[in-house]
Fold:
Amino acid sequence: MNIQKDKLRKRFLVLCLILISIIPPFHAQILTSSPYSRYGFGELNLPTFASSAGFGGSFIAYQQEDSIAPFFINVANPAGLAGLRLSTFEVGGQGQFTTISNQTASIKKKNVNFSYGTIGFPLKRIGGMAFGIMPYSTVGYKINSTEEDANIGTINYVFQGDGGINKVFLGTGIKPFRRQALKFYNSALADTLIKHQQTAKYKRIKFGKQLLSELSIGIIGNYLFGTINNTTDVIYPGSITYYNAKRQRATQVNDFTCNGGIQTHFIIDSVKSKQGKRVLKEKIKIGFGAFVNTPMTINAKQSTIIYNYSLDGFGNETPKDTALNSQNNAGNITLPIEFGFGLSVKKGERLTVLVDAAMTQWKDFKYFNTPSTDFRNTYRVSAGLNYVPNKIIRGFSNYHKRVQYRLGVSYSDGYLDIKNTAIANAFVSAGLGLPVGFGRLDDEIGMVNIAVQYGKNGTLSNNLLKEDFIRLVVGFTFNKRWFIKYKYD
Structure:
């Protein structure tokens, strides 16, 4: 291994450490400007990275068993971690450009920030493990409204919020029964079935053993932490009788949750035809997946202060008296169960198609033991594809053949129910995976993942707000064969 390559690797590792160290402070910035982040935990983030953002955020059956690098980390369904064959580092960020409209006007908002950082590595041949940090939810809104009262005059209401909940995670995925198919092939039962030409029974048992051998089970522990700040101002601009009023509320969350998943697949390597059995040039892998985010009651604290104030000619506040000052009141927040199922179809090393369907029982959500009437049970469906013409072809002129091309679509009927109206969300996506190499083809590979999502959130019905957004997600994936001492340079 020459000196130049060794220096490059050292610089790369230093860069990884620097990126990990700067993610938490950047993550504290606001990731959204949605007025709907006022409710509950705020705007919830899909637990996916830039690679899957390009194909609609589909992740439930996303696996890479027996694939050629690069490998990607799937923490949304931890069963996918069992497919890691190289140590993997991923970091990414996003920019969102939103137009918020009502019936008469619109405003434009922009939010840019780092989003996630994670490291994964294989556990011998039995599975993989990953840990990292990413947003769970984010809050960022400012809403102004005006009311005219016959006795008081004009009343201005200002609603503001910021903050959010972060998530540090540690998860693993393993294949506990990976040798079951091999044991069957070498068993006396298999020999007996072949000897007596019991082909149908042999195929049934073989298929079952294959599914069991490829079964991966994953679990992730999450530590949720962060603060959500909500402020409400009631301002009487033309009154000398009433003082303005302000309510400031801060909710702090510090507790653990967990989620798990399973995946399996089988391979079709031949098909029947009129000429007999035909071997496929590219094997077709059919995969299934399921995940569940378990319902949890997490600990939280809430501080509230309400006071009256007046404004001077420069707009500065002068507090008058305090109506309430309640600090660090302990309580519980109940998170609902979420579960989903996914299907994947992979043709050789070129084409992968994913389909997801998931549901969340948001009616069970309780905020400090109080059920919310603004929440409803919701479902999400998404689909996408990833296509790469030739992963292993060499040469600069063939670079476009190594690029991964992605398309996707996603729809959710929304978990918010405002004025008896569902706040639905939908988007279409497109993405690219641009490969970059650092050394050996088989053990040092990187990829720049770029995804663009265009979508809509909310509606203009019942005097509500509609959001049109363009979200740009950029991520970096690096694969390296760590923890191995080479015999030869």
Notes: The chain has one domain: 3-178+214-480.
